[in-house]
Amino acid sequence: MRLSRRTFLQGSAACALLPASASAQSGTARIYVGFPAGGTLDIIARRIAEKIRSTYTDPVIVEGRIGAGGRIAIEATKTAAPDGLSIVLSPSSPIVIFPHVYRKLSYDPVADLAPVTPVCSNAQAFTVGPGVPDSVRNLAQFVDWARKNKTFYATPAAGSIMHFQGMVFSNKAGLDMTHAPYRGMAPIIPDLLSGTMATSMAVMGDVLPHIADRKLRPLAVTSAQRSRFLPDVPTFAELGYGEVTGIDWYGLFVPAKTPVPVIDKLREATHAAMKDPSFGEALTQMGFDTYALSSTELAARIKSETEYWGPIAKASGFIIDG
């Protein structure tokens, strides 16, 4: 049975009323989320909060610090006390791509944040809706159509991995697609469904229900291999666009100078929560895979991806002053 977002949130709220056991920390922990309520990042943060409240601290609440492509939530974490009670759940883009595209970024992902662990990962799905003719059923047909029709592609934020994946695809295919940045995936979906927005390099979990209902059409995915969620949809690499490959991940971070034992407790509590079958099932139903690393391994991945995206961002000439 598919778990609806409403049921998911109601279940999280109900669990918050249960008595808690002894906590590793003392005080109220806040998980900051930089994108709107109801989106996948918010829902996943609420599930983490529910699962670690008895093993890490009680209570653990989710607090929206929405806007600026997730930067506001990171800034709130950067300036918080390094006591393990201020946590941010961030997509990878504000960590590994934003340093290359913001002329005046208000935080340094390496100097101002301490990595705890990634929680989940997902590929992106290049998706079209009724704004694209129904006859367009594969990527080659889309390219033919888009060469004759100036179009837009939506992503959750300017400077995100989806932004650059769409840009690279557009360039390689010889298209004139204009990027349309939104504040998260939640407001993109209605525009896709109505045809106001033609297409999106979309967070897969957000479009899966509408793909299942045949209201949206996925044309390609960004994973190296076909996604288990859309096994009939080819990868960009299969279709000749090997440069449009890469996954996004969501990771937990705390302020720099947070004591290592506190980081370890948070990571251990999170990894234990991720082993709960209900957690993995909930992620699966949203189109995500669980993804756990040590703090050291996450730091190494951040370094590698930051180096990878640097030349791509520089070659694009895309810079944000604000």
Provide an overview of this structure:
The model is unreliable at 1-23 (pLDDT under 50). With 322 residues, the chain is an alpha/beta fold. Helix 2 (40-52) links the parallel strand 1 (29-33) and strand 2 (60-64). It folds into two domains: 5-119 and 249-316, D-Maltodextrin-Binding Protein, domain 2 (3-Layer(aba) Sandwich); 123-221, Periplasmic binding protein-like II (D-Maltodextrin-Binding Protein, domain 2, 3-Layer(aba) Sandwich), CATH 3.40.190.10. It starts with a helix and ends in a 6-residue tail after the last helix. Strands 1, 2, 3, 4, 5, 6, 7, 8, 9 and 10 form a ten-stranded mixed β-sheet that branches. It has twelve helices and ten strands.
CATH-assigned fold name of the largest domain: D-Maltodextrin-Binding Protein, domain 2
CATH class category of the largest domain: Alpha Beta
Strand content: 15-25%
Helix proportion: 25-40%
Provide the number of structural domains.
2
Number of strands: 10
Silhouette: globular
How would you spell out the order of helices and strands? Answer: HEHEHEHHEHEHEHEHEEHHEH
Number of helices: 12
Poorly predicted runs of 5 or more residues: 1-23
The CATH homologous superfamily of the largest domain is called: Bordetella uptake gene, domain 1
Query: Nearest-angstrom radius of gyration?
Result: 19 Å
What profile does the largest beta sheet have?
Answer: 10 strands, mixed
